[in-house]
Amino acid sequence: MDLATVIGMCLAYFFMIVAIGFDFSTFTPQLYAFAWFIDIPSLLTVLGGTIASTMASYPMDMFKTVGKSLKSVYSQQNIPLVETLTLIVDVSKIARKNILAIEDALPSIENLYLRGGLRLVVDRVDRNLIVEMLSHELKYADEGRAGETSVVSTMGSLCPAWGMLGTLIGLVILLQNLDDPSKIGPAMAIALITTLYGSIFANTIFIPTANKMSVTNADQKLLMEMIRDGVLYIEQGERPDFIEQDLVNYLHSDQKAMYEQLKFDNEKKED
Questions:
Q1: Residues spanned by the domain of 120
Q2: How many CB atoms lie within 10 A of CB 140?
Q3: What is the number of structural domains in the chain?
């Protein structure tokens, strides 16, 4: 699981629970207060309205990715930049001696984008065509991930809006029943709690999920760009040390240190 996501969401709910269920004037718990914040009509208004509006805004194929997107933020998104750079440098050393020899290494390469690019190199495809094919795959993969992020981001913006709609509904009900005190309480509950629900779902689920997906998408794009450049360098027959020197710029400072340590360990094993 992604630790930052879990800790962040747990802290958000923890502070809300403490604010609701603890009386700071007497420093005693007030568990009965939680009942004040449970209102089924408000919940149905916010969640049902958000889902309905999102479904109306996107094709069904894109809408169906919401569940997968929400689930993905809880899993550890390991973008193997360091490991992939090491692999590219190793393959370039093989290709420097005999470019056709890298075909034997293709089945062991898990990254499909890298494996496909090297397959094009082995098959002696024209360089311009390799550039075009790799660029197209990178573009469409990035657009697909951006579409999934857009759906979740839309839900984050719709939740508060539906909360406000619920507030207006509650106020209308309230104004229509001013002569009946027994109906004023439920109407006020809908008026206030729908706005609360909209803010909670937007700020603890949908907006953080969309932000996390955007960060992961940027890392995925960075990885594919590094692979694209590495494949083109190998096709061009560049020296492994030159490829390494250029592609290491794709790594953050801590990743560079990790790469140097991994490189040192590998050299030590070879000795």
A1: 39-84+115-270
A2: 10
A3: 2
